[in-house]
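Q: Got a minute? One more chain.
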Amino acid sequence: MAHPHDPVGSATAEAVDAVNEEQQRRYGDHFLDLAGLLTTEDGLCCPPLAPLRLLEQATTQEALAQRIVPAGLRAPDDIHLNGWGTWL
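A: Always. Here it is, folded:
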């Protein structure tokens, strides 16, 4: 998953996308796109995350536009997920 230093269009984000596409092709229905869950409106509305109401936070929309994990799910180091992010 991309962190704030790797927004959409960065080399790292493109590499992650390529790996996810290959995994989706290889594993089909058995592939779980965690990045997609953590960086899309649909994912942030799924049952484990919906109570956090992340879509109501201004910084969340900025993060989604860059396809990065919203601050509400990131640890203070901006690399790892916090407790809520790992809950998913």
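A: The two ends are 14 Å apart (CA to CA).
Q: Perfect, thanks.
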